User: Fold this.
Amino acid sequence: MDSAELDATLKGIAAGSQSAVTALYRHYQTSLFAFIRSQGLDEGQAEEVLNDTFLVVCRSPHSFDRRSKFSTWLCGIAKFKSIDRLRASSRRPPDSSHESEEALSVPDLNADVLSQLEDEELQRIMQHCFEELSAAQRFTAHLFYYDGRSIEEIAEELQLAAGTAKSRLFNARKAIADCIQRRYASGGQA
Amino acid sequence: MNDPRQALFRETLPSFVNGTASESERQFMTQYLRENPSAQAELRFETALQAAVRAATERRPQDAGLARLLRDWKAGDARAEQPRPESLGDRIRRWKDAFGLTPAFALAASLALVQAGLLISHDRPGSASDFRGSVAGHGADGPLLLLTPKPDIPYATLAELIRTENASIVSGPDESGLLMLALPVGGRPEETVQRLLDSGLLDDAVIVPPRK
Assistant:
């Protein structure tokens, strides 16, 4: 959604247009939901926060001041709402302070293992391993592989150094490669 | 990894698969894959990973919450057409106006009203009791403030103001915009309240009496 489309959508929402709300929701909900999940909330809680966040926007569409990207602003609201939700459930936000740029490494893939797995089996194990990633790694992988964003765009979105975003992605890939090896060694039980 | 071309291949592989590689990088990758059939395994891993991420994302119905959002949004519109319930800030201002209170007495009266509000308004959405419940056990040891932002103030502006006071949001904003802040331990709440009010961004700011 470019800037002109966004302006028109927000004006439509202010005027009470249901189709404008629908357009905004459909455009942003997937990534926003992934972001909220990355804050350490389970699926049910994330659905609540997603709804609360869109409600804030739909009830005051003019409060977006254009000092940041709309998606960044949306994530900012969702982050506060997520923290509130975590406090209410006495859980803590995920800690990513231990991350460093030095952790970068390329997955050590065992080509033999991959060659033994049929596509369907590989996909099944891969999906299981993806769910085992940390919340931050999952969201970074979502932005990269689902949204098709570059490392630089992800770094800007997450307000990280580009090196940190890159190492987070590479570590996610390494964790998945390790997970596949482990699962294969144990008989491929996903 | 001693082969610089292999290193470049592995470095570029993710962006090749997600479509953000440059034209020259794409050309290099295509050529490398043609010359090194064994590299196909790594490409297979990467494309399988992309498919797994997509599958995980798309497992959730795309319009799962849309109906609820539209319903809640419409319900909010309907409420907005009714007279707005008097907020805590409204009540405090009405008291000040009605009795012509001096600033010191007004503050004391405000505190008493806040305390009364905390004690009696258990079931009104957005009331101070909502905040009180969320404060319990959250670990804020410093003084607490209750803010009523002006309705047209962007959230980001407010967040910036709060940051300048080294305060943290304990709860809110709720549907009427009320926010509960915790100041750092040893913070001077009266001075903070004055600075917050001087910002012109708030309708009101009051100190929440400590729990007995």
Remarks:
- Confidence is low (pLDDT under 50) at residues 116-139 of chain B.
- The radius of gyration of chain B is 28 Å.
